[in-house]
Amino acid sequence: MIEVVRDNFVKSYRLRQSLEALERVRGEINEEAYERLKALLHYRLYGKEFDRSKLKEKIALAFSMGSDSMASLLILRWAGFDVIPVMAKLPQMRDVIFLRAQSYGTVFVEVPEYMEIINSQIQKRAPICGKCHSMIMEAVKNYARRNGIKIVASGDLLSSGSISIYREGDLIKLNLPAFLALDKREAIKILGRKYALGFGCPLWKSATKTAPILKRFGVQRVLRELRAGAIDKEIAKALIKDILKN
User: Fold this and answer.
1) pTM metric for this prediction
2) Which of 4, 170, 181, 234 could make an S-S bridge to 14, C-beta 3.0–4.6 Å?
3) For the chain, what are the domain ranges?
4) Long-range residue pairs from 165-169, CB within 8 A, at least 24 positions apart, any chain
């Protein structure tokens, strides 16, 4: 499911940071969940096999059907966690996405005042991806609180190991790809199928026609991911081409 990092110095360093971050939240989560997450890191670091029997610990995962969140779902379920994919119902999503998401046991949540806030961002010619992400995560966290779920996960590739798992108020936030030092290439490989690279959702692409400066923000985001090692040069080039052609 996931590969051992072996002699990759940077990823090994980030994984050891994740181990330290995990220790800081040990008292905040179920001990079984702690041990399983630790075993998952040891597997990634050293190839040490571990018990993957079903755990009672539930994890609410922010789910978009993209490569990062899909890989996160597959890894966590492979590791034995009871994962609930939580998808925000956004107007730009096609019905086929919702239908496919249902097959993974997805729960759907509303994001209050979503279009009003996003349209305000577009009118100000301000970036919309960060605002969209924060609103979705808030909806997922609220679902977790209502259902007594302590751990909220996301498919964040960017954060370093030291901040890949941390306490956020009454919840524990787990950025799984960062926790495991996964990059985009590895995430796609886990899916086991062809994946079409593209930047932005239909709403973002439509917004660039009104506010072309959003393309600049998109390119900056791609370059940030490239510098962080989340993507390689080939993927970065494909994403930037996709941004500029729209």
Assistant:
1) 0.93
2) 181
3) 9-194
4) 165/18, 165/21, 165/22, 165/25, 165/37, 166/21, 166/24, 166/25, 167/24, 167/25, 167/28, 168/141
